[in-house]
Amino acid sequence: MKKNKFLEIIIVIITGFISGFFGAGGGLLLVPFFVHGLKIDEVRSRANVILIILSLVTISGLVYMRNNLIDFNLGIKCAIGGVIGSIIGSKLLVKLDRKILNILFIIFLFYSSFKIIFSG
């Protein structure tokens, strides 16, 4: 197995673990890896990560559902908002300048980091 393929498998396994354990991490880990590690175009990287995240959240969701940990009332309301937001976001992804896209992603990462660190 090529070294690159081995690294890809390890990154995806780690991402799956983090997604299942923390409920997040797919895009935050995989987009930079695809762009910088595998040298894949940013838009194509984000599009592929969405497909990967779909599989991660589907499996995690089934495990959480089996353990009666899901509030379906809240989940459905949030899912409706998420669908609307994902339509808007995916349309903007292909239209935004790459530099602006990078700046927005960095701002999001910093915001998320600070919220996690200082949320007590």
Characterize the structure shown.
This protein has two domains: 1-69, no CATH class; 71-120. 85% of the residues lie in helices and 0% in strands. It has helices at 3-22, 26-37, 42-66, 72-95, 98-118. α1 (3-22) packs antiparallel against α2 (26-37). It is globular and about 40 Å long. The termini are far apart. The relative contact order is 0.08. The model has no long low-confidence stretch (mean pLDDT 84).
Number of helices: 5
Q: Give the N-to-C terminal Cα separation.
A: 44 Å
Strand/helix succession:
HHHHH
SS class: mainly alpha
Based on CA atoms alone, the radius of gyration comes out at 16 Å
Report the β-strand fraction as a percent range.
under 5%
Low-confidence stretches: none
Helix content: over 70%
Number of separate strands? 0
Largest sheet data = none
Averaging pLDDT over every residue, what do you get? Answer: 84
The backbone outline, from C-alpha atoms, is globular
Q: How many separate domains make up the residues?
A: 2
